[in-house]
Design goal:
This protein is mostly helical. It has one domain. It has eleven helices and four strands.
Length: 292
């Protein structure tokens, strides 16, 4: 029976990094960005725009260069923003990370198709981008919007991966551009095939999704329970991955694998807190009656 510990542990580590780093960057980002929180309509619109973008990537081939420019601009902006937050206003330090990213992508990813970019740097930049986009956007979400967004995103992922297969084609198109949109890691224990080591890939959107759930849970219930939900997401991902490696061997919605480990714990926590709140109200009411 095949199993893997690399991707679940990577998901676990990246989500924890997002949780702990958010506590240090949230206030600074709010001061600099001053964006209003998203509403339910905004969350639904965001999911809709994501769906449209995925269809455009697959069915409109002329959007290829536009996609490259948008991705490079978004990544460079994030690198510049987070460097600026901690460089104390030294502009010559702020431009170094985005410049390095662009140069490495162009010379190692596009012009040379170098293995260093394909197997190492692409993964590193992808993981950095996943953490940065989580920290950048998480402040725009409230607890209610996070829950609704999670349901909508998971539903979209299920449809585009299992029904239309559009997400799979979009991932292939993005990979052909050498953009760091997926994290691809070899299985551990290693599995050799005729084409080399067997690898698994997870989209940056899935890392963002896990980070969003983890950070919002931390803000609502505290760090300890948030870590518990991260463990739940990791175990759920591991179990799904074992099933996929042995019985499925195809693309599967990562958001579903993640939310199945998070939702049961949160529902349980909500019920427990609801009962405690009800009990506290009953006790308070009884004390008031006694005093009267």
């Amino acid at each position: 029976m095949y199993f893997d510990v690399t991707m679940p542990l990577t998901l676990f580590a990246v989500t924890l990094v997002s949780i702990f780093t958010n506590q240090k960057t949230e206030d600074k980002l709010k001061e600099n960005l001053q964006e209003r929180p998203m509403g339910v309509r905004d969350a639904a619109l965001l999911v809709g725009l994501m769906s449209v973008m995925i269809f455009l990537i697959v069915f409109v081939r002329d959007i290829t260069y536009v996609l490259i420019v948008l991705y490079m601009f978004a990544y460079s902006t994030l690198l510049f923003t987070f460097t600026h937050l901690f460089s104390k206003g030294r502009w010559y330090l702020d431009v170094l990370p985005p410049a390095a990213f662009i140069l490495l992508y162009v010379f190692l990813g596009v012009l040379q198709d170098n293995y260093l970019w394909t197997y190492y740097l692409s993964n590193v930049f992808g993981l950095i981008f996943a953490v940065f986009i989580t920290l950048y956007l998480v402040g725009l979400f409230t607890w209610k919007v996070t829950a609704i967004f999670g349901v909508l995103l998971t539903a979209m992922d299920i449809i585009l991966v299992l029904v239309t297969r559009t997400m799979v084609e979009a991932a292939k198109a993005a990979l052909s551009l050498k953009l760091p949109v997926l994290v691809s890691l070899p299985l551990v224990p290693l599995v050799s095939t005729s084409q080399g080591l067997l690898t698994l890939s997870l989209g940056l959107g899935d890392f963002f999704f896990a980070g969003l759930l983890g950070v919002q849970t931390c803000k609502r219930y505290g760090k300890e329970f948030a870590i518990l939900t991260v463990i739940g997401m990791t175990l759920s991902f591991f179990v799904f991955e074992v099933f996929l490696l042995n019985y499925w061997r195809g693309a599967f919605p990562g958001t579903l694998m993640i939310i199945c480990g998070w939702a049961p714990l949160v529902v349980w926590k909500e019920r427990v807190q609801g009962r405690r709140s009800s009990s506290a109200k009953v006790v308070s009411t009884q004390e008031n009656k006694t005093q009267n």
